[in-house]
Amino acid sequence: MGRLPSIDGKTKMSKSQSNAIMLSASPDEIRQAVHQMYTDPNYLRASDPGTVEGNVVFTYLDAFDENEATVAELKAQYRRGGLGDVALKQRLETVLQHMLAPIRERRTACARDPEYVLNVLREGTRRARAITEATLQEVRSGLGLFLLD
Q1: Helix H segments across the chain?
Q2: 125 and 63 both lie in a single domain
Q3: Closest C-alpha to 104, from 31, 3, 22
Q4: Residue 147, pLDDT score
Q5: CA atoms of 18 and 56, how far apart (whole Å)
Q6: What pLDDT, on the 0 to 100 scale, is given for residue 19?
Q7: Dihedral sign, CA of 80, 83, 27, 100?
Q8: pTM for the predicted model, two decimal places
Q9: Could you give the count of Cα atoms lying within 13 Å of 70 in the half-sphere of its Cβ?
Q10: Start-to-end Cα distance in the chain
Q11: Considering Cα of 122, then 126, then 127, then 128, what sign does the dihedral take?
Q12: What pLDDT sits at residue 68?
């Protein structure tokens, strides 16, 4: 998968440009971001046929909605008309809220226990150093480079 477009559909997501949905976003922030998402500018009424290509909401549904058959039906319905942007965005909001809720809960739990976070970082650093050292020794041996102590 490539990069996800920003919620305004103009560029890639960027925290500094406030056009991204953060993993730490609250339910209200997710709702607001989804409702600001770019869809089809020529799609004036739900009864009109719409364009799926370039529609940020469908890009996100393709990326995050596990029910591919439902997304395909939504696309077909949008193309022929009869599916409004509000209903489409509600689907995406539901998908994102469901996906991000456990991440948000885990983040909150970790924030309450900074010592746990520090221990995870220490252990990760220890493991990374061991792997790096083993790789370095393998490269040196393969190249016939030996360091004298």
Answers
A1: 27-35, 56-64, 68-80, 85-112, 114-143
A2: no
A3: 22
A4: 65
A5: 16
A6: 76
A7: negative
A8: 0.75
A9: 9
A10: 47
A11: positive
A12: 96
Q: Are residues 36 and 74 in the same domain?
A: yes
pLDDT in tens, 22-79: 888 899 999 999 999 988 887 878 888 888 998 999 999 999 999 999 999 999 999 9
Residue identified by tokens 């008309």 is 81
What does each C-alpha distance from 24 to 20, 27, 31, 96, 147 come to in angstroms? 11, 9, 13, 12, 47
Instruction: Specify the number of domains making up the chain.
Output: 2
Q: Between residues 140 and 8, which one has the greater pLDDT? A: 140
Residue carrying the six token digits 């469908």: 58
Domain of 75, in residue numbers: 1-112
Residue entry with tokens 């220490």? 122
Residues 132, 103 within the same domain: no
